[in-house]
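Field log, afternoon session.

UNIT: design team B
ACTIVITY: writing a sequence onto a fixed backbone
BACKBONE:
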């Protein structure tokens, strides 16, 4: 049963573990009976409070992951390979995380048990005693309600350690008078120092016990899920799993000077052979890397260096941006939409499926924008400034298409897609919330040129333009016909002419006027909400 004095609402806040007995006799956590650990995120052994609690005193441990067909199985109607909710890159990354977790568990005398079906139904039907990391996303909130209600009715103990974030968003919101802080600086002042990570080192784990009639399988392959070999011509170069996360973290931390001098917004968005960031965001998203362990690793480097950058631009600062968005999302109803969202400006975005499709399918005719969208489709990842470029272009910068439409594309295709961060950044880049300098626009023709004047990034992801001379690579429609012919790329035939966009800047002028009017009309309302007490660093946000 619930511990005396425990608050059921707090027990299901950002990182929690639950125990329940849906199949047989209910027993207490300390009775030495079997424990079942429900992995969702938190796909790791290190710094995993749910694992530590689940294995403590248990005679048997059942580590379980539930394959949700809606999340994993092919959707033939999707615009890119994958399910209705996730692109094939993210599904593949998740499977790699599960294979690695299974191997790490086997090294400790256990194994990962794969079940398939609706997670709530599967858990309630099959699991005897459960621990799982709690999640703030609405999908998991609804899922947890079902499981929690069953647990309460059955008199089952619930335990909720925080491990997917540095801080418990509930605590931050309570410190701020019941509302989430809406500026980074106010969040940092409230948050303080995070708790240390667990130092538990396992030599072994309790063995898996009798599985009864539960339909257990191994981690499936892409083919097992129904995907063919030709679904996608190129996959993400980033491999999933805790082992890969710790290896990548170790490689980053070895370069102490780079860690100490890390500073956003500096960084090259066109660097693809060796990305200019840590590329640890996918591992944080799936919980392959503990944010507390990451935080401590950075602090250890700082201690050995005479000086280092500070938040919000430092590497620690990026982790705190993540916490800021998690807290804002958790404390804001309807955070993932414009309507009913008290912190989101009500902007009359265009509903133009043709413009959205051209952007999504990399057919805008602007090579910098299209190359980024190709990288998104092929790799499921791109540099944060590249994300900024295409998000600004779709919304306030050029097309004035609703940020929710772009959010949905990122949500499905990114391997590091994170509900709170994705929605927060789309509101930010569209100047719907958090960031208010709507006249600061990423140019689709000159921004990328600052970092990559030869256009190597464009040539890689848009090979149709690989022979275009550098003076035309960002604006190929300006090349004389003879140059286009020599480059084997006729604009309007081999590569789109950006005809649906006004190259003279009328669109930008029109939409900037619209944004100006909206801001003037909303100024009094948002000032009352302390909405404009934001930071000068607003443009550079948390894509690690």
């Amino acid at each position: 049963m619930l511990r005396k004095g425990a608050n059921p609402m707090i027990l299901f806040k950002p990182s929690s573990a639950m125990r329940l007995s849906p199949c047989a006799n209910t027993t207490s956590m300390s009775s030495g009976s079997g424990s079942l650990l429900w992995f969702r995120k938190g796909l790791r052994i290190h710094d995993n409070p749910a694992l530590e609690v689940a294995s403590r005193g248990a005679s048997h441990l059942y580590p379980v992951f539930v394959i949700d067909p809606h999340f994993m199985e092919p959707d033939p109607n999707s615009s890119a390979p994958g399910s209705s909710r996730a692109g094939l890159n993210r599904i593949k990354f998740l499977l790699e995380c599960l294979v690695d977790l299974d191997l790490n568990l086997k090294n400790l005398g256990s194994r990962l048990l794969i079940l398939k079906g609706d997670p709530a139904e599967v858990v309630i039907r099959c699991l005897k005693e459960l621990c799982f990391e709690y999640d703030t996303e609405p999908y998991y909130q609804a899922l947890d309600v079902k499981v929690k209600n069953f647990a309460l009715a059955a008199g089952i103990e619930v335990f909720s350690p925080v491990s997917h974030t540095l801080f418990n968003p509930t605590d931050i919101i309570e410190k701020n008078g019941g509302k989430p802080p809406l500026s980074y600086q106010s969040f940092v002042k409230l948050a303080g120092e995070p708790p240390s990570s667990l130092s538990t080192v396992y030599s072994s784990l309790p063995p898996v016990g009798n599985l009864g009639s539960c339909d257990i399988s191994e981690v499936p392959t892409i083919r097992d899920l129904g995907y063919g070999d030709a679904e996608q011509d190129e996959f993400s170069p980033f491999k999933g799993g805790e082992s890969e996360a710790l290896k990548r973290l170790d490689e980053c931390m070895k370069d102490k000077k780079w860690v100490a001098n890390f500073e956003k917004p500096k960084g090259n968005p066109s660097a693809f052979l060796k990305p200019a960031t840590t590329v640890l965001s996918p591992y944080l998203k799936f919980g392959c890397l503990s944010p507390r362990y990451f935080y401590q690793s950075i602090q250890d480097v700082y201690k050995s260096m005479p000086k280092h950058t500070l938040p919000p631009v430092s590497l620690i600062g990026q982790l705190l941006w993540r916490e800021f968005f998690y807290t804002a999302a958790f404390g804001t109803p309807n955070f993932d939409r414009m309507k009913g969202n008290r912190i989101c400006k009500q902007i009359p975005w265009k509903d133009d499926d043709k413009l959205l499709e051209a952007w999504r399918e990399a057919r805008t005719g602007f090579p910098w924008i299209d190359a980024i969208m190709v990288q998104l489709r092929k790799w499921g990842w791109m540099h944060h400034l590249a994300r900024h470029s295409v998000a600004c272009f779709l919304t306030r910068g050029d097309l004035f298409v609703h940020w929710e439409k772009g959010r949905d594309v990122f949500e499905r295709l990114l391997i590091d897609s994170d509900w709170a961060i994705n929605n927060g950044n789309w509101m930010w880049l569209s100047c719907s919330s958090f960031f208010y300098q709507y006249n600061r626009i990423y140019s689709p023709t000159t921004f990328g040129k600052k970092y990559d004047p030869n256009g190597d990034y464009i040539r890689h992801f848009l090979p149709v333009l690989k022979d275009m001379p550098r003076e035309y690579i960002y604006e190929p429609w300006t090349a004389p016909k003879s140059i286009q012919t020599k480059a084997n790329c006729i604009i309007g035939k081999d590569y789109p002419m950006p005809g649906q966009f006004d190259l003279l800047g009328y669109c930008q002028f029109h939409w900037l006027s619209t944004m100006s009017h909206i801001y003037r009309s909303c100024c009094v309302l948002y000032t009352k909400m302390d909405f404009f007490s934001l930071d000068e660093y607003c443009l550079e946000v948390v894509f690690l």
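LOG NOTE: Confidence is low (pLDDT under 50) at residues 1-32, 523-544.
NEXT ACTIVITY: expression trials, pending approval
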